[in-house]
Design a protein that fits this description.
Layout lengths: L15 H28 L6 H23 L5 H9 L8 H23 L16 H23 L8 H21 L5 H11 L7 H21 L5 H8 L9
Length: 251
């Protein structure tokens, strides 16, 4: 979900495996809080509550961006990775590795939840709310994700780089989106967050909603970014998307 931070890494260089580990660990923490809140809420018979369920991931995103963002950019979401690549701020060669690392982190988090608590709460599966059709759910995920990616790209741009406050902006958006829209789709905005519980629980009924909607929303946000700010490739955006400088032989 990117840090939007101008790093002062100096001569330090981050190896590509370290970036992948940071993405996997960051996504693990995000999904553990997002899916874990659902599981613990059911285990505790509602002691968590929906407000806490949607606030916890937002706060986790904020913490991960501030702690790991300088290493990998803290994308934590395949849509973020693809959006940065479409903007020319992130190398396409690294996209598959990032997406796989994110999925590994998500599956690991849900695997831990299942090992500890069984299939309680569907291991945090994301589903459309009662009476919400597939088309409605896709549109909701599209709109929510378009907003998320717009915030991420905007805070990482040359003209709007706001340093550590970008973590507050992104984490705050995640929480606020969930507070008003989670009864409709669980406000995933992240294919990795949704596919992790699906894979671990074996429930793929609504998987396509949380892939089609977010990626369509990400594409819309990239188009808006082009119309608002022109082509990407700014130095600040590249640094925000990629983290610290890479080793000389890194692609």
């Amino acid at each position: 979900m990117t840090n939007g931070l101008r790093t002062d890494a100096g001569p330090e260089r981050v190896l590509h495996p370290q970036r992948l580990l940071a993405e996997s660990l960051g996504t693990f923490l995000l999904v553990l809080s997002a899916a874990g809140a659902v599981v613990v809420d059911e285990l505790s018979h509602g002691q968590i509550g929906r407000a806490a369920e949607v606030t916890a991931p937002g706060l986790t995103v904020m913490a991960v961006i501030l702690s790991l963002g300088a290493l990998s950019g803290a994308h934590l979401n395949p849509v973020v990775t693809v959006a940065f690549a479409l903007r020319g701020d992130f190398p396409w060669a690294r996209v598959p590795g990032y997406v796989i690392a994110q999925l590994i982190g998500s599956v690991a988090a849900c695997g831990l939840l299942r090992a500890m608590f069984g299939r309680v709460g569907g291991v945090g599966v994301t589903l459309p709310g009662p009476g919400v059709g597939g088309a409605q759910a896709v549109v909701m995920e599209l709109v929510l994700t378009a907003g998320l990616i717009t915030v991420i790209l905007g805070t990482a741009s040359e003209g709007r780089n706001v340093g550590g406050l970008s973590a507050v902006a992104v984490g705050g958006y995640v929480a606020l989106a969930g507070l008003w829209s989670s009864p409709v789709t669980d406000a995933s905005m992240n294919p990795a967050r949704s596919l992790g519980p699906d894979i671990v629980s074996g429930d793929f009924v609504s998987w396509w909603i949380y892939v089609v909607g977010p990626f369509a929303g990400g594409l819309a946000a990239v188009i808006f970014a082009y119309l608002l700010r022109g082509a990407g490739g700014e130095a600040a955006a590249k640094e925000a998307a990629q983290g610290s400088p890479t080793e000389p032989r890194d692609a």
